[in-house]
Amino acid sequence: MAKKKIPLHLKIVIGLLAGLAVGLLFSYLGVPKEFTLNYIKPIGTIFVNSLKMIAAPLVLASLIIGIANLGDVSKLSRMGGKTIGIYILTTVISITIGLAVVNLIEPGKFISTQTRMDLLEMYAGKVAAKADQAKELRESGPLQPLVNMVPTNIVQAASDNGSMLKIVFFAVLMGIALLKIPKEKGEGVVKFFDGINEIILKIIDFIMRIAPFGVFALITTMIVELAGDDPSSALEILGALLAYSLTVLLGLGIMIMLVYPMFLKIFTSFNYFDFFRGIRPAQLLAFSTSSSSATLPVTMECVEKKLKVSEEVSSFVLPLGATINMDGTSLYQGVAAVFIAQALGLDLTITQQIMIVLTATLASIGSAGVPGAGMVMLVIVLESVNIPAAGLALIIAPDRILDMCRTVVNVTGDATVSMAVASTEGQDFSEIDTEELVQE
Question: What are the CA-CA distances from residue 319 to residues 150, 179, 417 (Å)?
Fold first, then answer.
């Protein structure tokens, strides 16, 4: 009798829980942090770097193939308009939900004066660094995002995952060009990139074999670094910020359990629990890596192979989503801005909160899909409503954990929109064999 294979998502969960246990054990036993940094962290770094390594070529190849297979530029225009429109809609909804829950719970009023002063003093240096980065973004000009979208050197852009929008821009141009030239002249190019795409997908299979070990290393390192030299002190700070953290998690939970199922119901009538089972490897990796860009190859594989979204849709919608659709990040920015105002005793008017919605929407588009990018954009959101950027110190302590959670929402939102757009393009999801969703 053949031995039953353990599903990949279960292996990842085991790695995650083992990393949590080992990280806490190391912290309380006083195991030198250097041991974790020298012998465990590199495993996680190798895993994340492996995913980032294939992100750019995967986006380039799959997007070119997807557009070339559309057969019509008007179809691309129609699909692009729907994609961006839905992304902006979900972003506005997420920020609105964040503002609603933070105004209802008012977590800022749970922070004592002493805790506030301690946090402001403890993280003053980190706040200054984030403020400097935000200043550079502000001084770049209102049209700088459009300038940054066009690469001066596509090879150089392809070597930087932070330049994913440049790769998308080039791939869209190349795909459109392939549609405009005689088919026989572009056929060899299409076959080349199709072959590259298949090779990358096979490499993803190889990388995912070490995913449980990579997740274990990432979580162990995160716990050890978070605990620092005094685990009890870290827990006290997190306890003081518990109301804020739970407010963010409540907002993120509403997005995952209510908003996205609503979109699926409206566009596809697809069972959300089956959808969840189909993308859970991507969600678990998003939680572990805190990076939408690093998770992108796995997200594309789950959406195409499990949820059966056509390649022409997924190859366009998902890379674009990993670049501009940050629902979890924008929700967090709304909650964080109001929380800081509450903690500092500042009252925000309705007009100021509307300004937060507008600024956070624009900031989420410019927020790179890498860990901690949302914190820099938050400085801009704070200053748009005259909240001192120094208040950022109040939320730095739990940010690493919350960043993991909001990245899960970002990735889930991308997958949801891909199914919605595919449905509007005439794809029928009623024939999906849901039993395949539990097989890895």
Answer: 16, 20, 12
